[in-house]
Design brief:
Helices cover 46% and strands 22% of the residues. The chain is of the alpha/beta class. The chain has one domain: Spore Coat Polysaccharide Biosynthesis Protein SpsA, Chain A. It has an eight-stranded mixed beta sheet with strand order 3-2-1-4-7-6-8-5, with helices on both faces.
Amino acid sequence: MIISIVVPAFNEERLLRASLAQITTAVKSFEKIGWGVELIVCDNNSTDRTAEIARAAGATVVFEPVNQIARARNSGAAAATGDWLVFVDADSHPSPELLADAAAEIQSGKCLAGGATIRLDEHLFIAGWITRLWNFTSRCLRLLAGSFIFCEAAAFRTVGGFSSELFVAEELDLSNRLKILAKKDGRKIVILHRHPLVTSARKMRLYTAREHLRFIFFAIFNKRRALCSREAAHLWYDGRR
């Protein structure tokens, strides 16, 4: 069994080194059971030292010129040779215990794909409540958080990967297509929750509540434009780090 870890990264020189170090530690859970691991970082047209840091950490670096998270993940997956893909965001820290739980689901033969609940790396009151609401929704509806997704490579390619039309919520779109395939295949989508993924709360610090609310209301009344426009989804693409 080969596991491909895919990390999309746009101007992540501040956080990438620590994230890759944590991933390198966490994948020992796979190596302990005899699985091979490859680490792929997709440099999503960065203007900083992202690619240099990734290479120094031993990762294979691929380049995606179009600044879009869906394309970055797809380009990383296209270079992967693994039987299973694990997507981890560049500001996230999976634990060995989380990857051990993912390995157990893979070994069961009953799982097509999965994700995990999340925990922010800072204690922020409003963000904490939003996170708890997301975790509840994720587990009930089996929706995958983009910061951590594991998926059988063949299934990922069967459903066409992440939609290149979407600049945000691409993981929810993928979740729904994977759920349809899982139902046909007699397998399941799982949301791991015993060991939440630790991920950065930086968006809550870098953007005001007004900016977040503006996007939410815009998405409610103009969903397609909000999800399919880089300009509308500026909270993800304007480069604040």
